[in-house]
Amino acid sequence: MAYVINKETCLGCGACVAQCGQGAIEEAGDKYRIKQEKCTDCGACVGFCPVQAISKEN
Asked: How confident is the model at residue 49 (pLDDT cuts 50, 70, 90)?
């Protein structure tokens, strides 16, 4: 399962972007999204989201 960013919860703060060593997080309008083809499922971004908008996709 891959990590995803919940668009409803995401504040668009960008705190997760600098944590991604793969460059898998990109802007999507005023929010962010994870490019699945680049994500290695390391989870480095998860702990830096102030509203817990990043989780494993079900």
From this structure: very high
